[in-house]
Fold this sequence. Notes:
- It is a single chain.
- This protein is α+β, with helices and mostly antiparallel strands.
- It folds into four domains: about 1-95, no CATH class; about 95-145; about 155-235 and about 370-405, 2-Layer Sandwich (Nucleotidyltransferase, domain 5); about 235-365.
- The chain has helices at about 1-10, 105-115, 120-125, 130-145, 190-200, 205, 220-225, 235-260, 265-270, 275-280, 290-300, 300-315, 325-340, 345-355, 355-360, 370-385, 390-405, and strands spanning about 15-25, 25-35, 40, 45-50, 55-65, 70-80, 85-90, 95, 100, 155-165, 170-175, 180-185, 210-215, 230-235.
- The relative contact order is 0.09.
Amino acid sequence: MRGYSITQALSLPEYKVTGVQNSLDGLRIEVEPYKRKAFVCSHCGEEHRGTVNSIKNVTVEDLRISGKRVRLVVTKRRMKCEQDGRLHVERVEWLKPRARVTKRFAEDVYRLTSITTNTEAGWYLGLDDEKVYRIDFETLEDLAAKRLEPIPSPENMSVDEVSWRKYYRYLTNVIDVDIRKVIWNSMGRTSEVLDKFYNNLGKDNCSKIKSVALDGAMTYISSTAKNAPGALIVYDKFHVVQKLNTTVDTVRKLELRKARQEKRDDLAEMMDCKQRFVLLKNKANLTENQKNRLERLCALNDSIYKAMLLKESFLEVYTKKDESSAQECLNAWFAQASASGIGAFVALAEKFKVKARYILNWFIKRISSAISEGINNKIKRLKRMAYGYRNPHYFLLKIHQHCGLLSPRFSP
């Protein structure tokens, strides 16, 4: 009766418990198949009837019981395959192939690695890093074949790049804005990389895409325009403001260099990198002390004053209620920037002129890729936690696990 109860508690289909050993390092539970269990060949996957050639015992890791590690000593039979005539061991459905663990144990490893590093998960489970890596990698590949193939078709999507390695190594992420999940990624940030996504998606699904939020990269714009001509391309507001702030900071660095050369220490101190947030912060969010400091800086330096005026006047574009009034405001800004005499803003105005249509599309469809930036931060944190990834394919799968459809929190 006791053996039957343990068999029921372990829930191992078509197998029964024949012995239990309790030791300091955990439990060793011997299990063997019922006599009526059919032999399923691990080579062809078919059921075979005949004489068992031999048996072998395999020790596999299972979930803990009352805090003790559990190792199952599984009896596996060997029989001649009817297709190739060679001896093969039987397939056990609840065992993870080639991993010496049960499938439920592999599921536990996968859930742990979604919230911590492989090293920490291995310490908790009593496994070495390499074994955790193999189990996690295989589990993610199996899930990817089920959830990411074919690629889920989005209606509103965002495309962004993120650095994954030094020396300008980037990868491209495609996010479904409606479900806020990564649905595809690949190494590189060229138009050919994004072309692969659209080609795998197929023409029918590409025609269903309504809008695409981008960071303004011409490689992504050209690929989207070619493969999804019916989609509305939106130059994301977040990245537009980011470009403005970068240009203001460029002016600050130039003026700081001049102030140091002229030995104007008071002005240089006000433009130091520690004070740059005063220029980059939204004016409405400045404290009274920060506003006074900004006013003093603008009074002392004409270029900084003009840069701040150009930044604030551009942001007025987004306060307009319709596309036509926004276009008038944008055209006026182009004229102001070109006449400002500040090289950084003159160059920015030329770039924005080329992409003016995509900037104004924001008033047609107010889609944002801000979710992409949040995901990028998660990816950078993931990379820092693991101190980098040697296998790029594994890294892409980990992104899907933490930010996409392979997350254990996601229910397809």
